[in-house]
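Field reference: sequence -> structure
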Amino acid sequence: MFDFGIIPPAMFLGMVIFMLYGFPVAFSLASVGLFFGVIGIATGHFSEAFLQALPLRIFGIVSNDLLLAIPFFTFMGAILERCGLAEDLLEGTGKLFGAVPGGLAYAVILVGAVLGAITGTVAASVITMGVISLPIMLRYGYNPRLATGVIAASGTITQVIPPSLVLVVLADQLGRSVGDMYLGAIGPSILQVAIFLGFILFLSIVRPGLMPPLPKDVRGEFNWALLMKVLAGMVPSIILIFLVLGTIFMGLATPTEAGALGVVGAMMLAALHRRLTWPLVREAMTSTMHITSMVVMILIGSTCFSLVFQGMDGSRWIEHMLSGIPGGPVGFLIFVNLFIFVLAFFLDFFEIAFIVIPMLAPVASALGIDLIWFGVLICVNMQTSFMHPPFGFALFYLRSIASRDVKTRDIYMGAIPWVVMQLILVAIVIFWPQSVTYWLNKGPAVDLNTIKIEIPGFGGNQLSLPPAGAPGGNGSPQIPGLTLPSLNGLPGQQPAPPAKPAPGNPAQPTAPPADLSQPPQIK
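Structure field:
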């Protein structure tokens, strides 16, 4: 463990102590990094030349175009949180499924998935659905633990469904394309929604009393008016999803440009609902400023820490410890996910992404693990950071808008089954990597052994060399089977007279002159 010195483990321990003490994360990381940097310079374990790169790395953070997607998606989510779209979706979908046991729970999960695809923020989904659906679910006999659990879990789907902010941050930390991260997250997103819906279906069969159907006078008749109302809420959402995700997947826009399109679409939806006011825009801008500032400051602090940590051979220390885990890549992934699950009790997803991922990514790459698969897997795991105590932010959001009749104990206990389902998805992604890699763009497969290059000659005769390795052949080892032009047709030289055939051997016909006006043929 100490093959690379005592300082890397001491840095890691110092970071944990600072965070447990409650000091702000960004300043904890920066202070620990600079403090141990000074100690390393004094003891000869660290070169001050590393610190010369610190201003350049900070400038690279604040000038990173990819990180502009974070304020765009945050602003879009803040606008949609207040524009009335979620109310229309929940009201119509709740009445559509209200006749069956668990109908409101189905509606909350499906609307949570749609909101996740157009907002990308957990707070917007949990608060909006909690304000609208929780009083109705409790009024008509839903179990409080089930009602609070399904609302909190449906809000955390936003973590995995593109355009998730977590995927943007992970793509930046792993050095991969945001578009590929979004494509890789499609399969786990569908699986997560299916697992949640399957759980509600199972409970509705086994214990329908936990989630009774809505009375007929509340849900109304199933008719064209209700169906058109649901479609009126869905169609603008689908258009906005295409603006945000479709343009990325089709290569028409970068994630930053797609985020800007999403902001325009969100403001248009707010205007259609007659809620686009200056107070709404001001609140959205304030929320966006707070979140973006927090992300940038944590990223700057983590850069200070990681620069010193790597200069102390901390990355080699991490790789030395983790590469020896039994089980190969699968054992490494199981250990990493257990480690991150425990860290999520104390840290939020931004802190985990900026602190832990830069340490783990080189080890994953050395073990041959696809980093897109690795990033999506970590994103699926970090859903749990919003759901389990003591720092489950989805539970905090729900507690802030729930009435006093709802006990905090019910909120925490109701979250446990959904955390288990999220961990089931983690296991599925570990042992079934095609759930991520199947959706990635793959270039056309070309067998290089089937390619043959033909180059026209310069004169009337051609000198054809046999392929390399053939008996008596002098072909090119770089291009086997290459047909070279004759040396008799070089410019400025007279062609040599044709050789006379030997007695008893008939003359061989010469190749026709090559047409130099045509390009070489590749077969």
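Note: The longest helix spans residues 278-311.
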